[in-house]
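Researcher: I need the complex structure. Ligand is carboxymethyl coenzyme *A. Inputs:
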Amino acid sequence: MTKSAKLTIGEKVIDLPIHSPTLGPDVLDIRKLYAEADVFTYDPGFTSTAACESTITYIDGDKGELLYRGYPIEQLAERSHYLEVCYLLLYGELPNAAQAADFEYRITRHTMLHEQIHYFFRGFRRDSHPMATMVGVVGAMSAFYHDSLDINDPWQREVAAIRMIAKLPTIAAMAYKYSIGQPFNYPQNHLDYAGNFLHMCFAVPAESYTVNPVLAKAMDRIMMLHADHEQNASTSTVRLAGSSGANPFACIAAGIACLWGPAHGGANQACLEMLREIGTVDRIPEYIRRAKDKDDPFRLMGFGHRVYKNFDPRAKVMKESADEVLGLLGIENNPTLQVAKELERIALEDEYFVSKKLYPNVDFYSGIILDAMGFPTSMFTPIFAISRTVGWISQWKEMIGDPTQKIGRPRQLYKGEKTRDYVDLRHR
Ligand code: CMC
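Model: Output:
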């Protein structure tokens, strides 16, 4: 039986259809509301609004569940790897052996950038944040790859997708190398995706560099855990930009810009900087007090999540990786880590954090791992951007193929002046 709800506004009763999803709460369809009742809905932050249909990722915030195309993130983290997850997100199913080999071949053969893009980097100041460089360079890709800009051509959409997944690590590594004044490293196609990224970031021409498999595995996991996350702020930004028909490179550049904010992808950088600022375990109570103070804008970075109100399943897996990496590098006792462990312990017991369901999120642990690997904090968000590119593209492709898709155009609750007449300057 089709479900519906009745909305009474004054004398008028409006029937609103209710859709039942595969998983999650029912969804009230208000598309005809304005036409039939002459009212808008008001939902800043979209806390109760589904903006699209999707089959890619599912999150149950209360259960702490994250599924990519139905597969639990814990199983993927244990048994899969990043490029396989990319295939799954993009095409909906796990690849068979031939499909996996073909996909990896196509990604690997697209890792190099157009040589002229190298000159583009030089226009940036050396002290530019790598995210600033990435927003610019990814946006500029639309000026280099004219054969993959037509969003109505499925082949061009496919090539654009492969190009971005393949080239984002190269761009991020170049942004990093540029910022520290070292020569760029070309991609090494005999390495896997994560290992190649580590090589491009850490190898120098004067020495040979061997990728540590434990670090490559941890990097692969970071990428996998960040690959998609449903309709978060940056993904919604990509969809909104794409809804106007903008080219895919411009859309992903918009996503990167949104991700940069400290409430979203920028939280991993902000979290590690906060741990360093706290510095020693004895200063933690002062920061906990500030986090609870309503008049202080300070928040404990790396804690809390809009959707996960029990635990962040990504954080659980990431914590295991953090222990593995720190054990390997023999730095379990560094001061930042001690602050992190103690902060986690206190916050998990503190009434304020427990009652508001504020748990460490994925960024709390990913920052610790990336720091241990030798990345500066400014590279944390670019690594998130590399990882999320496949999610953004999958969601963008899904949107283009959706027959109900329209240009995104929210309405507003206008509280400004009513119509008034212009007053000449001399009379003001
Ligand atoms: N420290 C202290 N108090 C907090 C925190 C925090 N990190 N997060 C939320 N609160 C409080 C907040 O003050 C509010 O209190 P009250 O009800 O008394 O007004 C309550 O908890 C609910 O917070 P909210 O701002 O309504 O929650 P939200 O769903 O809008 O925000 C969030 C989610 C992630 C933006 C927020 O928790 C936050 O700013 N966390 C720190 C930044 C961070 O770690 N972000 C990374 C998220 S995971 C990576 C990603 O997916 O992007």
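Model: Summary of the prediction. The CA atoms of residues 412 and 418 lie 15 Å apart.
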